[in-house]
Amino acid sequence: MAFVRVRSSVIHVAAQASQRGCCALDGVRIAYQGTQILHVPQFRIDSPCRVALLGPSGAGKSSFAALLGDFLANDAAVSGDIARPASIGAVAQDSFGALNPLMRIIDQVALTSSSRKAAAERLEAVGLGEQLHRRYPLQLSGGQRQRAAIALAIGTSPELLIADEITSALDPIASAEVIKTLRRLTGPGTATSLLLITHNEAVAYALCERIIRFHPNGEEAGFVALEAPGAAA
To answer: Domain ABC transporter spans what residues (predicted)?
Structure first.
């Protein structure tokens, strides 16, 4: 087990989980400038599944995901035991931020693929047909861009895919297509777990087998209040 210092705190980080797809948090706390923003007594993923994080803004959902994804701000004070998967992908709400507006979609996906044929197959896997492959991001709808961003994120075959509010800017039809894509590419029967950050309970329960709620404020801010099975279980 390696030791990593963040300011005055010590994070005990397992260099790699003991089995593919495994990640775990035990007694983890995050604080900024002396104020605790997250407390996770225990969390674990042992095999591919889909987990939703529910709670209002400021409850600690994004900090939880940033901790697992290893992109937490450097000035965070962190304590506890953390085991992360060897490979992690991420998709944000703003698909423009993930895509180069000056490159065709297939050219971008090919950058993280073994071949152009593999890139085309990956685009097909997220529901983007051949007629869309040579388009630029601005020539795609919001839902199509989000699925292209998913194709980029899964290029390295991540063991964990973190999706942050990826349906919040989409209309119901586009949201349904993105949910369908994530259901096909993540969770049981695949090699990738999904960590979904959302305010939308309908999306969470439609897609995920596990639901985690966060307290919104006060001394219990960020505490994992409830873990329950989702409708997809």
So the answer is: 23-228
In a domain, 123, yes or no: no
Our count of domains for the chain comes to 1
What type of residue sits at position 110? A
Tell me which residue range forms the domain holding 27.
2-87+196-229
Taking the C-alpha atoms of residue 39 and residue 184, their distance in angstroms, rounded to an integer, is: 32
Contacting residues for 117 by C-beta, under 8 A, at least 6 apart: none
Whether the predicted model's global pTM rises above the 0.85 cut: no
Tell me how far CA of residue 157 lies from CA of 123, 161, 167, in angstroms. 14, 9, 22
Please say whether the beta carbons of 158 and 89 come within 8 A. yes
d(CA 179, CA 75): 34
CA angle (3 as vertex; 74, 82 as ends), nearest 5: 75
DSSP 8-state assignment for residue 211: E
Give the number of other CB atoms < 10 A from CB of residue 94.
15
Q: Residues 178-199: pLDDT tens digits?
A: 899 999 999 999 999 999 999 8
Closest-CA residue to 130 (of 156, 152, 104, 161): 104
Measured CA to CA, the distance from residue 136 to residue 156 in angstroms comes to 22
